[in-house]
Write a structure and sequence with these properties.
single chain, two-stranded antiparallel ribbon, two-stranded antiparallel sheet, 10 helices, globular
Length: 264
Amino acid sequence: MATPQVIAPSRAPSGSPTAGVHHINVRHTNGFTVIGNHLAQHAQLSLTAIGLAAHIQSLPTGARIGIKLLAARFPESEARIAAALRELEAAGYLHRDRVRLADGRVVTRTTSYNQPQAKAPAPPREQPEPAEPAPSAPPEPQPQPHPEAATLLTGLRRHAPQLTLSARDISELAPAVATWLARDVHPATVRHALTSDLPPLVRHPAGFVRNRLTALLPPPLPTTPEPPSAAVPLQDCDRCDRVFRAPEPGHCRDCREAEPHRAA
């Protein structure tokens, strides 16, 4: 009697995956960009923001990434691209500021970070000759990485004295508030969410604010592009580079509301 031969195993070997993603990886030798999992698997950024960050990190130094240029390059609208840029700023992957060139033009300078707010290494320089010590001066305050969020948290005590926060608390909570603002939530709405229906006694203001910022965080806006408006065109804010609708160039609503405070 012949010995039966097994043509195929009756079941998959133990530990063999049967569902989910399967990877086939080929080692890149040129033309590639290293993206950290902290970005690719970010729990709070939208897919549009993650993809935009990966695109920006792949560009050479000096490449232009204005909102209108990106909207012409990709199918997303200017409003979606502007919202994604604000998400990346709030998460520390991007920083934009306005600089004046030698010819008087004002342009937007963008700095991309492959780690949130990473610092570029300073080039080595020669040690100067010893000099007489300069007169001591009081240290200048360091700028907050999220100034709008820090201002909102600092002002909470005007509306609810029991939510008076320390400078350290404000620095730690500012990124969470910046996430709300990056999702197009108006500062007054954020303030109302934090100060309404307070308990009679708040023993730990920072923990209370952190819990509300986490529990009440609204989802990102739907990705369905808004229908174009033929009556009022889109404009780039001259101060913060946000997109807004107005018949003429100028400042967005938030920057206009902030002008009386700057004047004071």
